[in-house]
Write a structure and sequence with these properties.
Blueprint: E1 8-18, E2 22-31, H1 39-52, E3 61-64, H2 78-85, H3 102-109
Parallel strand pairs: 2-3
Antiparallel strand pairs: 1-2
Amino acid sequence: AIVEHRAVAEAAAVSAPHAIKGESIHVFVVLNNGYELTAELEMDIKRRARDKIGALAEPDVIRAVSGLPKTKSGKVMRRILNKITRHDCELGDTSTMADETILDELFTISGIKS
């Protein structure tokens, strides 16, 4: 539902621990050219997920990134995003990652010192 939004080129959703809910939804989005993640756009993306899938699918956090961590064959490495949302710097084997430079950006926007 989120990638159907006109502003979103790519997206990946992962869970993160939440003190009350147990788990929360964090979405990393790559925006199309000409868009930036404003509060209004964030609410619009959340509303779209809620309307298309339901209230349980509404993301708690949306983070705009320049790219998603992918393998050399183009698959999104969700385990990396899961580790990032848990503030875990121990990413394990990243040898299959196509572009490791994306990690610095992910650490920075998540407030993690690499």
